[in-house]
Amino acid sequence: MQKDIILRGCSEVVNDNMETFKCNPSPCSKLNTYNWAYDLPQGLIPYDVVEVRFKNTRKGFYRNVNGLEIKQGDIVAVEASPGHDIGIVSLVGEQVRQQIKRYKVRTENGDYRKLYRKAKQTDIDKWYESISLEESTMLKARKISDSLNLNMKIGDVEYQGDRSKAIFYYIADERVDFRELIKVLAEEFRVRIEMKQIGARQEAGRIGGIGPCGRELCCSTWINNFVSVSTNAARYQDLSLNPQKLAGQCGKLKCCLNYELDAYLDAQKDFPDTNIVLETAEGPAYHQKTDVFRRVMWYALNKNEQTNFIALSVEKVFETIESNKKGIKVKLDSEELKPQGAVPVIEELDYANVVGQDSLTRFDDKKKKDKQQFQKNRPNKPNSANNRQNNPENANRPNNPGGANRPKFQNNPNRQNKQNNQQKPNENKA
After folding, report:
1. For residue 341, what pLDDT is reported?
2. Which residues contact 241 (CB under 8 A, 6 or more apart)?
């Protein structure tokens, strides 16, 4: 149940002392709308249309006909066809007027649907009961569609708040005749059936996942409206036209290709046409790639050559084109004929290479290191021959004090017997 509530942009439902049910919004819900005008003074007559959200990305705008005090997060009962639905207020005030203009909402019969009341305990209980049936209904509907051999996939089911209607979201590559399916579903679940087709991007946003950038998918976090993406967006940004890298988890082009497209288009307004071949003294030069923000264009004397590119600034390319129009072949300087790796950087980087500044032994035992240093700097022993020679006080001191008359070993009888026993075998051998 907690997971199903989160799909509606709500982490938990709380009940205050005024018998009003409120929703604590989930911080990761893309259905949240930030009301940046919440602290601005309102007009004499506040705007009476509120924005209400439902499951996934479904939202609606309803008029507060009864003049109720509605706040963001309240759970309300709104008009539906048929019966009523339960939703969560996502936006109130003048900001709703801007949302209506943004989404170009169309009214029914010249007016919006009505907001009946704040949800009561009976409404919440029935809402919970409807939510608990959605997953089992989806699994049964998939089996029914497979038995009818329909080329479609039912991805999600949403019950209305009063459990009088169910919306089935499906994906299909071709047009599907599901009239027989609607009859079977109506007999099976005893509710009104509504089929709504969604695309692959909406399906990926509903399932969620992690993108190649390491972050959660944009379509499952904050994107509400999907803008068409074409391969021209990759061409303008000089990206490799590799379908595996340009496609997202939905199988379509990544939505993030449009994020920086406007910046690239603005930067390339004064760039020359890349299809123009430059006539130089060394031969024709063909365009290979462009560094847009450095304003550098790379050319090669051989169209199929991938090395020894010639780096030219945009101004230099324009000058070469004007000279070619006059019939003059420009001779490129040796500095411009350097390979790609030797081209000087136009602007200095704002960071420095700090690799190697930290010692690899900075975490070693300091006591052990100090001991080794002490032994290295320790003076020679006082009894050594060098110190005796260098020190005049030790000049008359004997090398073996008190040991001149000392025998090499004492006359030990056991030792003499041991030496005699070692000599006897040699005598026998002789």
Report:
1. 45
2. 231, 234, 235
